[in-house]
Each structure stands twice: as C-alpha cells, then as structure tokens.
TrEMBL record:
Membrane topology value: Multi-pass membrane protein
Catalysis performed (reactions): ATP + protein L-histidine = ADP + protein N-phospho-L-histidine
Compartments reported by the entry: Membrane
Enzyme class: transferase
Residues of the HAMP domain: 189-241
Assigned EC number: 2.7.13.3
Pfam families, sorted: HATPase_c (PF02518), HisKA (PF00512)
Main location: membrane
PANTHER family assigned: SENSOR HISTIDINE KINASE YKOH (PTHR45436), SENSOR PROTEIN QSEC (PTHR45436:SF14)
SUPFAM superfamilies reported for this sequence: ATPase domain of HSP90 chaperone/DNA topoisomerase II/histidine kinase, Homodimeric domain of signal transducing histidine kinase
Residue ranges of domain Histidine kinase in the record: 249-469
Protein name: histidine kinase
Length: 475
C-alpha cells in the first residue's frame, strides 16, 4: 500500500488510466450494441428478401401444378443441404413451412422442420425458440394460394459475426490503450520535468548559495512558485548578510575596549601587593583573556563565512602543499605550548602523505583549535596522525587528532559544530566556537570534518582533504 501523501505522478497516472479504461469499456459496449443492431438489420433484410424469392418460386410451382410444388421444393432443399456441407461454418441454415390460411393443415415443410408452426399465422418478423436455440422467423401471406409462408433462419452466422467484430474492437481498443499509455508516459514525464528541474535547482541551494532560481523555459504554472522562492531567497540572503555584518561589527567593536581592559588589568596586577587583590586581578585577567579569545574567534568565523559566501578574503586562498610537511611545521609552533600546559602529544606523520590544496594559515588555525579542544576537554593526551581514505573515502587523505577524554554521546556529537555549544561544560575557558571554525575552514578548503566518539573512549576529529588530481567525492 502507498504510504504518505500521493504524488502528482501517481495521481495523474491513476486518473488518466481510469479515464482511458472507462472510455475503452464504454466505446466497446456502445460499438457492440450498434454493430449488433446493424448486423441484425442486414440479416433481417436478407431473410425478408429470401422469403420473397421463395414466395415467387412457390407461386410459379403452384401455377405449374401441385405435384410440381412438392417436388420442386424438395429438390431445392436437397440442393441447399448438399451445398451447406461444403460452405464455411458461418453459412446460414434455413427452415421452411407452408400453412393453410386457417392453420388447419401444413402444405409443406422442409427437412428438420417441426410439425408445429414456427411462428404465429400473421405477417411479420418473429424471434422464436426451437431446438434449444433462437430462430428468426419471417411470415409472409400468399393470397393466391390462401396460405402462409414461414421462413426461419438460425442466427449462428450473425452471432459469429457479432463476436468476431467485438473481438476485433476489443483487441484494437487494448492496442490503442497500450499506445495511449506510452504516449501518456512521455507526456507526464515531459510535463513533470520542470518540477524535477526546480527540485534539482533547490537541492543545489545552500546558505552560501541563495542565487535566484531560473528555468528555461519557465512554465506559466510554476512562475508564481519560482517568483515566491526567489523573493524568499532574497530575504534570506539579506538576513544572513545582516547577521554576518553584526557578528563582524560586534567583534570589531569589542576588540579595542577588551584590549584596553587587558592592558589596564596587567598594570593593576603589577601594582597589586596584597595577596587577595592579586588573586582577584588574576581572575579578572583570565576573564578578559577569555573575552579576547572569543572576539578573535568571532572575527575569524566572520571572515570564514564571508569567504564561503564568495567574498574575496585576504590570505585565505589555498595552495598545493605536501600535507605531512605542512602539518609538521604547524605542530612545531604548538608543541611546546602543549607540553607547558601539561599535555602529551604523540605524532605519526610518516605512514601517509600526499599533495593537497590547503591554506597554511587556515590549517594552522584548525590544528590549533583541535589541540586546544583536546587539552581543555580531552585530558591532554593527544594523538596526531595521517590516515588514508581507503575505499570509503577514495582519493582523500585525513589528518586525525584524537584525545583520551570522557568522550561524547551521539546526541551531543551531532551538535559539536554549532556555535557556542560546549556540551554542558562551562569551565575550561573555551568559547564553544573552535569546531564551528574548523567546519567553516574545511568548507572553504573543499574538505570535510568527521567527528566520532564513544562515551569513555575520547573524541576523534579527522580533517579530510582531496588529494591533488582527484575529484572530491562529495561533489
């Protein structure tokens, strides 16, 4: 059974096929009725003609004498029986009776004709039952002989013709139905193609690609839908651009006063002599540093979003570099900081490497955020290694940073790239923007961010890059 709302294609098929079937049945029934009526009229006219010819023959034989009448009619039916053995199966079979006017005496009957009258003794056409079948009987008066002539015909021939014509009409109707179905299939697919094209255009739209939808040609029925969608895209584009400008402007406006506050706090920290005051100033300093870190992250996120939206951003263009060498240079800058913070860093970059299109600055930011994330939430024991994509990610190479922290459940894992999401952790000084920034960096570089975790087994973050000369499987 179909589930869910019926599709337009199914509705069209159901309606059109039912209409065609109804038209076929109606046409077959109506045509069969008309054909049967016309065939009956033709055979009735032929029966009347045959009766009149027999009447003329009987009158001639009667004028020649009574003996000539019986002998002539016997010879006539003997010749008809002999011919009927050789003619085709649809040839007519006839019975003949000659009765006196008052019906008291049968003057003549053909072979196989019954002893009783085939029809009432009155002129006209009759349908009578005889020998488990229906016979068409025409009764004509012969005033010269004071008699009634009855000629009966079994309707086998007309029934066979009716059945043959009905079969021909049915077969031709079925062939027409098949042909119409094929033509309808082509017409339905052609009619629905603009909808499929519109669906494909909409699937290509993202928050970073809200260009107006265009169809060539544009069906008049879809014009209101397309115009409404394009108007919606315009409003979404304006709203997203306003949001990005707000983030960039807010971060920029906060950057300067936070820097001033940090300088003033540093001066106060040097001047403070009491232990309690120094402790309070340390907390103030940490808060200011965290605020500055958030501002820096917001500014970077705004720059990345502008780059993903197609805006030219300085120092964000990718270069073809060896991934292992580039990662090694980046890790040199952060290795001592990890150790100073009490962490451990295990590095394995020798098994795999490949040239990729990356930006050293963006890659450095991504690695720094992964290391900071691992130090804050992963216990400080970090592993950095390169991985080959294998069959699942053919033509790609990955940089994995794994920690040995408590891990993340599936529900929280799906939200880790949301801005300001910290999985319920408010300590540690993080801003909740690191993985969001990494996600934007990978989008800007044409790569992918893969996160995996099991509770109690730490978090694994892999940056997948297409190897140079290999198409991105995600495209």
């Amino acid at each position: 059974m179909w589930s869910g709302p019926p599709s337009i294609r199914r509705q069209l098929w159901r309606t059109l096929l039912l209409t065609l079937l109804f038209a076929l049945l109606f046409n077959s029934g109506f045509s069969s009725f008309i054909v049967r009526h016309e065939v009956d009229e033709v055979f009735d006219a032929q029966l009347v003609t045959s009766t009149r010819m027999l009447k003329t023959l009987i009158l001639k034989l009667h004028d020649a004498g009574g003996n000539h009448l019986d002998a002539g009619l016997d010879n006539l039916f003997a010749d008809l029986d002999q011919v009927s053995d050789n003619i085709q199966h649809y040839e007519k079979k006839m019975l003949l009776q000659l009765w006196s006017r008052d019906g008291s005496r049968m003057l003549f009957r053909s072979p196989q004709s019954p002893d009783h009258a085939l029809a009432p003794l009155q002129a006209g056409m009759f349908r009578m039952d005889y020998q488990q079948g229906r016979w068409d009987v025409f009764v004509a008066e012969i005033p010269e002989m004071d008699a009634w002539l009855m000629v009966a015909e079994i309707p086998d021939a007309r029934d066979e013709i009716n059945e043959s014509l009905f079969g021909i009409m049915l077969v031709s109707g079925l062939l027409a139905l098949v042909l119409a179905t094929v033509m309808l299939a082509s017409a339905i697919e052609s009619g629905l193609r603009p909808l499929e094209q519109l669906s494909e255009r909409l699937r290509q739209r993202t928050l970073d690609n809200l260009q107006p939808v265009e169809l060539r040609p544009e069906p008049p029925e879809l014009q209101p839908v397309i115009h409404s969608l394009n108007h919606l895209f315009e409003r979404l584009t304006d709203g997203i651009e306003r949001e990005r400008r707000f983030v960039a402007d807010a971060a920029h406006e906060l950057r300067t006063p936070l820097a001033v506050m940090q300088l003033e706090a540093q001066q106060l920290q040097r001047l403070a002599t009491e232990q309690g005051a120094g402790h309070l100033l340390d907390g103030l300093m940490a808060g200011i540093q965290r605020g500055g870190h958030i501002v820096e992250q917001l500014l970077l996120l705004a720059r990345l979003e502008r780059g993903a939206a197609g805006v030219a951003v300085e120092n964000l263009k990718p270069q073809t570099l060896d991934l292992a060498e580039t990662v090694r240079r980046v890790l040199v800058e952060h290795y001592s900081r990890v150790l100073d913070d009490g962490g451990e860093l295990e590095i394995d970059l020798d098994q795999f490497s490949a040239p990729v299109n990356i930006n050293p600055v963006l890659l450095g930011i991504a690695i720094r955020n992964l290391l900071c994330n691992g130090m804050l939430y992963g216990g400080g024991q970090l592993q950095v290694q390169l991985r080959d994509g294998g069959f699942r990610r053919m033509g790609m190479i990955g940089l994995e940073v794994r920690d040995h922290g408590p891990g993340v459940d599936a529900e929280s894992l799906a939200r880790l790239t949301e801005p300001f999401f910290r999985n319920g952790r408010q300590d540690g000084g993080g801003a909740g923007l690191g993985l969001s920034i990494i996600q934007k960096i990978m989008e800007a570089l044409g790569g992918e961010l893969e996160l995996s975790s099991q509770p109690g087994q730490g978090l694994s973050a892999i940056l997948w890059f297409p190897k140079v000369g290999t198409a991105n499987p995600g495209e």
